Amino acid sequence: DGNYVDKKCPFTGNVRIRGRILTGVVRKLKMQRTIIVRRDYLHFVKKYGRFEKRHNNMAVHMSPCFMDVEAGDIVTMGECRPLSKTVRFNVISTRSRLDRR
Questions:
Q1: What's the 3-state SS for the chain?
Q2: Would the CA dihedral through 2, 33, 26, 81 be positive or negative?
Q3: How many CB atoms lie within 10 A of CB 84?
Q4: Interior CA angle at 7 toward 23 and 4, to 5°?
Q5: What angle do CA 75, 77, 80 make, to 5 degrees?
Q6: What is the pLDDT along the chain (101 residues), one digit of tens a residue?
């Protein structure tokens, strides 16, 4: 549905996706057109020969065409130019948490 104006949208705006493509789980939806995405990963500790769990939260721009997203959904995001102080990624696609096949 293209009935919106968003200059930071990768589909209708003036932003190009280049660089890394990442996935994560939506944590917060409290900002306007920006969401917080949690990325979990494992870090190897050489001394013990084991992995430890780590995570980081990323601020990601979400265009109005994805406004059916809820907390817990899985999103794919692509790297773009800096859109604000903390936002460097843009939502490309979404998957409901119920579709985890």
A1: CCCCCCCCCCCCCCCCCCCCEEEEEEEECCCCCEEEEEEEEEEEECCCCEEEEEEEEEEEECCHHHCCCCCCCEEEEEECCCCCCCCCEEEEEEECHHHCC
A2: positive
A3: 10
A4: 90
A5: 160
A6: 557 888 999 998 899 999 999 999 999 999 999 999 999 999 999 999 999 999 999 999 999 988 899 999 999 999 999 999 999 999 999 998 887 55
Q: Which amino acid is residue 51, in one-letter code?
A: F
- Structure tokens that stand for 8 in this block: 């930071």
First vs last Cα of the chain: how many Å apart?
27
